Amino acid sequence: MRKSLLVLLLWAPFAMALLPQPVQRPDQATQQAIQRFLLHNRILDSPLDLDNAPYIVAANAGRVLGAHGERVYARGDLDPSQPDYGIFRRGKAYTDPQTQELLGINADDVGTARFVTAGDLTTLAVQRVTQEVRPGDRLLRAQSPVDSASLAVPPTAPSVEGHIIDVPKGVTQIGVLDAVTLNKGRRDGLVEGQLLSVIKTGATVRDGLTGAATKLPDERAGTLLVFRTYEKLSYGLVLKASRPLAVADRFETARHSE
């Protein structure tokens, strides 16, 4: 009996490790950072996704505008049952740093508007602006918010490697709760909720005695949470950073122990 009890006590930790572990959901600060970011940032898989979207023809009295509540007139397929629209302008095109393949484009946030009346020209009321709204600006349906449950992914996602290729808010040094653009997406196996390790490439220095060029070891420098995936690109949020991160830093699927 004692021997059996001893075996059970010794085996218990290993048995627990084999059981499915509870998945941690993002804390409130992380969720808020994600939702704020998605209000102002959007990726489109193809330039045609923006070029074929409904567009603003004019504002009140034909002038350029930028005030809450002002009316704009648009042409295109606008659905009154989904009344909230983002106003966007074509921004940066993203290409793969190694293959130069076009991965998608950034839709620059101009503001938001709400459906008012339909007609040959649809009338919308401006709700929020970040810059002047211009004729030709495009209208896209509002994105659904990120559900925290969708970010609770079991540790079965495939192994993926890639690079940080942009920081949408324009900073050069990336820290905790900053969002970054990644050059991998759904087609590469990235899933929302996946954790990625950021690796800083070791610098190449000259050996003072031999004169030979010597590469220092790569170092793990942070952890990213993938919170929105597109076909060829994704957004990740920095959860941890032991040193400033930067564009061109490499990432790979995080080990479960990290």
CA-based shape:
elongated
C-alpha Rg (nearest Å): 24 Å
Order of helices and strands: HHEHEEEEEEEEEEEEEE
Could you describe the largest sheet, including whether it forms a barrel? 7 strands, antiparallel
Low-pLDDT residue intervals, each spanning 5 or more residues:
5-23
Number of H- or I-type helical stretches:
3
Structural class: mainly beta
Helical content band: 10-25%
Mean pLDDT: 84
Percentage of residues in DSSP E strands: 35-45%
Organism: Pseudomonas cedrina
Protein name: Peptidoglycan-binding protein
InterPro entries: Bact_Kbp
Keywords: Signal
Written description of the protein model:
With 258 residues, the chain is mainly β. The chain folds into two domains: 41-141; 153-253, Beta Barrel (Thrombin, subunit H), CATH 2.40.10.410. It has three helices and 15 strands. It has helices at 2-18, 28-40, 47-51, and strands at residues 41-44, 55-59, 71-75, 84-95, 102-117, 122-129, 138-141, 161-166, 179-182, 195-200, 204-206, 213-215, 219-229, 234-241, 250-253. The strands form three sheets. Strands 1, 2, 3, 4, 5, 6 and 7 form a seven-stranded antiparallel β-sheet that branches. The model is unreliable at 5-23 (pLDDT under 50). Keywords: Signal. It comes from Pseudomonas cedrina.
